[in-house]
UniProtKB/TrEMBL annotation:
InterPro entries: DUF3152. The lineage of its organism: Bacteria, Bacillati, Actinomycetota, Actinomycetes, Micromonosporales. Coiled coil: none annotated. This is DUF3152 domain-containing protein. It comes from Micromonospora mangrovi. Pfam families: DUF3152.
Length: 278
């Protein structure tokens, strides 16, 4: 990583963006890895307290077909659920609260929400799936630095995990051209439902493991981690490597601590292209 750029946004060369940003009450300035910067519209951003709506003009489109999509990224698996290209911009928040995961370290509380229009995903079930991943000892709570707790809509939270449609992802991640990746922007961990439904080719159809990786990678950005490179050909990829876009000789890995010890690579990111479609 160069300087202090926004961690978790994906750079488009067509590739990916990244660096530390803070959501301000009126305006958020997103620093791009390429060196430029522009302001993300505040009405399209979601604070840790409550997801804000996308403008009313963004009406839901018909659900994506589960048949092959012409022009879809080569090798991308067929979706396991249907979803609209564009949702309402409003979110359903999971109500259940969970136990604190992790024994020591700073406590961060998080909410989980699903964009309205993604009707195939139950928000409470999605909340449980997120909580299981973030509580796993192979994850961020296993090293003693962090404790994480899922909370409901009426409890203060440090960040929110959002499952969004591809177009809303573009707005919340401040890049309307990218409908493929997910991101972290400030206190928003934005999970693109296209990747939640389809995964990526390099995980060889193991959608469950890819979802674990996706959550751990984007939450890792919220915890202050930047992108990393493959440390050894044939070895597991660090969770902070952009495995969604390429493995570069490493093998897929979903966890920060796959064998009970931290796995990291050199800081940096590859100039992998981002597919044009979701």
């Amino acid at each position: 990583m160069r300087g202090r750029t926004t961690i978790g946004l994906h750079r488009r060369s067509r590739a990916s963006r990244a660096g530390p940003t803070t959501l301000l009450a009126g305006l958020v300035v997103v620093g791009l890895a390429a060196g430029g910067a522009y302001a993300a519209r505040p009405d399209l951003l979601v604070t840790a307290g409550a997801p804000a709506p996308v403008p009313a003009s963004a009406r839901p489109l018909p659900a994506a077909s589960t048949t092959p999509v012409p022009g879809r990224a080569a090798g991308t698996p067929e979706p396991t659920l249907s979803y609209p290209a564009r949702g309402t911009g409003r979110f359903r928040t999971a109500t259940a609260e969970g136990a604190v995961a992790g024994r020591t370290g700073q406590l961060l509380r998080y909410r989980v929400a699903v964009e309205q229009g993604i009707d195939d995903v139950d928000v409470e079930r999605f909340g449980r799936e997120v909580a299981v991943v973030l509580a796993d000892p192979r994850g961020w709570t296993g090293g003693g630095q962090w404790r994480l707790q899922r909370v409901g809509p009426d409890t203060p939270a440090d960040f929110t995990v959002l499952l969004t449609t591809p177009e809303t992802r573009g707005r919340l991640c401040a890049d309307l051209t990218d409908r493929y990746t997910s991101c972290r922007n400030g206190d928003q961990v934005v999970i693109n439902v296209a990747r939640w439904a389809r995964g990526v080719p390099q995980f060889d159809g193991d959608l469950g493991r890819y979802r674990q990786y996706l959550l751990n990678h984007e939450v890792g950005h919220r915890l202050g981690h930047g992108h990393e490179l493959c440390p050894r050909v044939g070895g597991p990829a660090p969770v902070m490597q952009q495995q969604t876009l390429g493995l570069h000789g490493c093998t897929p890995n979903a966890w920060p601590r796959p064998d009970g010890v931290p796995l990291a690579g050199p800081p940096g990111q590859y100039d992998d292209p981002v597919p044009d479609t979701d």
